[in-house]
Structure formats: C-alpha cells, structure tokens
C-alpha cells in the first residue's frame, strides 16, 4: 500500500517481472487492487493497492482484505513531502492491527537513490519518530513497525523484500540451521539460499550480511541466467529451472555451467581477491550461492558431498511441509 506514485507497481515489476528500473517511468497508475500469484518454493500472493482508496470504508470488507495477510508493506516516497503518507500509514496501521494483530507492518522508505547518505538517515529517523509518536498518542506503541531504505535502482529493494518474505516462512529457523551446518563444515564464508525467479534470498547463515557479499551473490544469479539464456541448449535457466539442459560448453577456468537438469546446475567464478563464488541448483526454484576462500575449495570433494546432504535436507523440509498441508486438508474434510 502507499500513496499514488510512491512506487508500488514499480517495485512489483522490478522484483517479480525483471523489468529494468528505468522502464518503470512509463508505468500506468493502478486504480484497482491488482492481485498476483507468485508460484515458487512457497506460493504467495502480492496485492497492489491503489493509493487513493480508503479500504476501511464500509464499501470494503476490511476483515476479508486484512484478515488473511502475512505482511503489509507500506511504501513512502522519500523524495516527496511525506506528511500525507504518514497520516495514511498511521490510519492504516491502527485499523489493520485491530482486524489482524498478527500482521507484520513493513515500511519501505522508497526512492532513496537520489538522497545523500546523511539525508537518508535523517529521513528515516524523522519518519520513524513521527509515526512512533503518533502511535503512542493512540496507545499503540506496542505495534512494531519495521523500516527499510529502498530503491529499485540498486539491490536494496531485493534485500528489503527478502527480509519481509523470510518472516513469512515457517521453516526459516530450520533453513538457517542447515546453512550454518553447511558453512561450518565446508569452509564457506557466506551462503545465501535464493529464489532464482525473484532473486529474493529466503535464508542465509547466521554470519552478518554485508551488502557487498549480498550484491555479488545476487549478481551471480543474473550472470548465470544470462549465460544460459544465450548459450544454453533450451530457452533459459530461469524458465526451465527444473528441466533445462543448460550447458555452457566451452567453459574455461573462470566459469562453467554444465547441468543435465538445472537441479544440478553448478557454476564457479574465481574472483581476483582470492575468493570463489559458487552457485549450485537446489531444486526447481532455489539455488545456493556461496562465497569461500579458494584454498578451502581445494578439498571440493567434501564440499560436493556436504552440498548433496544439504540438498536432500532441503527436499525433506519442503516434503514435510507438503505432507503436513495434505494431512491438514484431510482432517478438515473430516
Ligand atoms: P504507484 O502509483 O505507487 O504504483 O507508483 P509507480 O510504480 O507507478 O511509480 C511512480 C514513479 O516513481 C515512476 O515514474 C517510477 O519510475 C518512479 N520510481 C519508482 N521507484 C523508484 C525508485 O526507487 N527511485 C526513483 N528515483 N524513482 C522510482
């Protein structure tokens, strides 16, 4: 949600449709709720709400609209005067919280690409302060809001969306634990489990995320997708992630992808600082991208073995989820 022209449709297009950021300049403004199904490792829906409508008006069923949500993302244009947007945010949070207290409230302070670092921090502080004060006036200081500085012109929008989605994944602690075990036993410095289609990372190990590692790992997905789209035997690594015969023959020392199925996709890039960037396909939707020192990669038989165990564990986690969902469905049907 958010005011008109705050950037909602652009975010959706850039994150879920690979639209280049500068093409969003020509997007038409939306005037009705746009619902979009995202089919991935978990299925979810993204709803884009036009800014000018009041959903708490009696014409709308706010229980239906807000009751089932996992997260409400409110987009604020940081380049514009945001006082009106803050009123709207306050109004939305107070009402939506009454309908669904489990909702997580995520505020994207958006279009920060044009702001200096100092101004970004000041803007965030100002917005955070104003909204916290307003909520306190309504005895709602216990409602937690999360703030992110975002722009479609860099990785920040993917990072923010990743954090929002991660909160909606019940298996997150298990996934993080598996990544920690994999890293500890394979000499891996940092590992991200990515959803290939959206470049959202659904989990990472517990070492701190530094922006540079995240950016380079995220860029690797683009490189591999591009290489396989141009040189792969079938259309694309991304479209056919589960069945593509991606094969960049002729690969040399620096990178190479040879897969029979994209589940087995594998690629390496040696960086000039002695690190290795390594991508492995995990299943139809997910890929593991990790950074490790090249001397640790010498024993890569062990890494291959550990990775295979990791992949089987991930399959078990999602298989369990599917079986639980089926069991619950049967129980409901009596
Ligand atoms: P909506 O009405 O909230 O869906 O807004 P749009 O997605 O149509 O975006 C309105 C304008 O903001 C478009 O011209 C976008 O190109 C621009 N825009 C969106 N995101 C960003 C951003 O991160 N940075 C900048 N500079 N412009 C953006």
From TrEMBL:
Molecular function via GO: GTP binding; GTPase activity
Gene Ontology, cellular component aspect:
endomembrane system; fungal-type vacuole membrane; Gtr1-Gtr2 GTPase complex; nucleus
Q: Main subcellular localization, coarse class?
A: membrane
Catalytically driven reaction(s): GTP + H2O = GDP + phosphate + H(+)
Q: Which Gene3D superfamilies would you find in this protein's record?
A: 3.30.450.190, P-loop containing nucleotide triphosphate hydrolases
What keywords are assigned to this protein?
Answer: GTP-binding, Hydrolase, Membrane, Nucleotide-binding
Q: Which SUPFAM superfamilies match?
A: P-loop containing nucleoside triphosphate hydrolases (SSF52540)
Q: Which GO terms describe its biological process?
A: cellular response to starvation; negative regulation of autophagy; positive regulation of TORC1 signaling
InterPro entries for this protein:
Gtr1_RagA, P-loop_NTPase, RagC/D
| Record bears the keyword Hydrolase | yes
State the protein's purpose.
GTPase involved in activation of the TORC1 signaling pathway, which promotes growth and represses autophagy in nutrient-rich conditions.
Q: How does it assemble?
A: Component of the GSE complex.
The family this protein is said to belong to: Belongs to the GTR/RAG GTP-binding protein family.
What is the protein name given in its UniProt record?
GTP-binding protein
- Source organism per UniProt: Gigaspora rosea
